[in-house]
Amino acid sequence: MRMIVIGGGIAGPATALALQRIGHEVTVYEAYDVPPEDVGAHLGLAVNGLRALEKLGCLRDVQAAGHPVERMRFYTAGGHLLGDAPRLRREADSMRSVALHRGQLVAILRRAALDAGAKIVTGERLVGATESASSVVAEFASGRRDTAELLVGADGIWSTVRGLIDSSAPRAEYAGLYGVAGIANMTGLETGIWNLAYARSGAFVYTTIDENTQWWAAQIGEPVKPDLRGIDDAQWIRRVTELFPEAMPRAIIGAATSIVASGYLNVCDTVRTWHSGRMVLVGDAAHPVGVGHGASVSIEDALELAAALSGAPTVPAALKAYDAVRRPRMDKLLKHGNNARETKRPSTVKRQINAAKMRVLLPFFERVQGYLYDYEPPSLSAVGGSQSATR
Asked: What is the pLDDT of residue 337?
């Protein structure tokens, strides 16, 4: 079958790769015509996402491009350790989570999709789609049209496809937080540790990826959406320094060398409808979870959609099966994401409540979040095989 994927970020190329692997012809359309290496800041991949990448044949490339992260530690604004836990894995898991630049992950997935035979077209923005019983026609702002048996919306939290599937679908909104990420150079800090401090103005995170380098991010609470245009690196560093006077953030920001990204944190109400007869959502278009899991579950989606298409007699039946498999896991993770986001909104009382909660919950970390890392991705048969999927 011929398939169209809208969005060339993480979910889009991963889906294209999975669909090509089971014998479909896929074209990915991406609105922005920029090199993938220039996209975004750094991110974390949990072991469930890494195991999904292994099924797609990309694990070694991703591990080589990134940095292993052993543990995560949580601190009060005053620098007191609340506790620590394994980073995005179970304690006994031999695999380690990976930190890497988003653009590197996008580049790896796009290259793998191209090598598998997919086409990637940039500079084309979807504006409409028309379905029939047997096909869907995609319409682009340039006037271009394309026809396929399935259209996959991998176009992120601001998804156009979501609104085409359901005109009453929720739209993303500013979450009362904005963020800035950068790089610092300090020596003498323990490598492979992700650190988070609940500070006066929000949350501050840094990871020492090697003996000289820290990747950091500040998530800043601001009820009124600020204007982030035209702020250069020096201005950002001054702003973050003023907003985060606490010892740990101040030390990292004092060693900052560059800003790599800034932007708003957005939220979206639960998306009730993930598919129609010939269109389906994956990744943030369906379930913008955030909290360090967005990339991992997007890659899971790619495999599960391909598995559903391999095992169902028709496209509409496959989309129903995909929805049934994914929704319980995503509903649970969305609740976790909403709770985590609330802990980053600044207030003295909230910081005290957060500290108390973390002291109580961290010893039970695996009991609360272990289900995330127990995920077993399906294996996809290569082209020429039975086109079945197994776990």
From this structure: 60
